[in-house]
């Protein structure tokens, strides 16, 4: 009787296991519910890259971009200016800011030019006899010399013998000494390199100006620079 009871219990367990397995299989085979897709409407706009200016409210010192401190490179009496050499006076480009009396130095330059002319003249007889091919060139150069104007450049293209002869007579040395004097003569006047205004005037007409003396300051009033302190977030 006991064996029969155990057999029946085993049969019931097996049948129950089979039934449970079938239930699980059926549940897995059920179709999954479809998820309905929701489409959201989004408004878009085409991006256009542009430069966004930064506006900064600040204060600072305004400085002229073009400014020139005036110093005397030579000594002489302040003789002339295109306008009153005073603070606030405006000058146009090329107008004379100031000119020193150069009459004494000018006479020295003229004397040196006259001496150079005589030196070249003294070479002509020797050039005619010893270097006839160079004579026309130097004759033309001699005729082009005007002591009231800047010396013309020395002739080029001469032979080596002619160059030795000219150099040995001191022509080159005399020529470059005079060119140096002409450059220095130009320093007796200062012209405005751009239109502007005198912001400082330290001398007056008739006073003796010494070499290295500061004369004033001249600025261009059309272009300025502004120095500002900008925060890190900019």
Task: Describe what this molecule looks like in 3D.
This protein is of the alpha+beta class and 234 residues long. Among the domains are: 71 residues, OB fold (Dihydrolipoamide Acetyltransferase, E2P), CATH 2.40.50; 83 residues, no CATH class. The chain is built from 5 helices and 10 strands; from the N terminus they run H-E-E-E-E-E-H-H-H-H-E-E-E-E-E. It has a 4-stranded antiparallel sheet with strand order 2-9-7-4, with no helix packed on it. The protein has a 4-stranded antiparallel sheet with strand order 6-5-3-8, with no helix packed on it. Helix 2 runs antiparallel to helix 3 and helix 2 runs antiparallel to helix 5. The longest helix has 28 residues. The chain starts with a helix and ends in a 7-residue tail after the last strand.
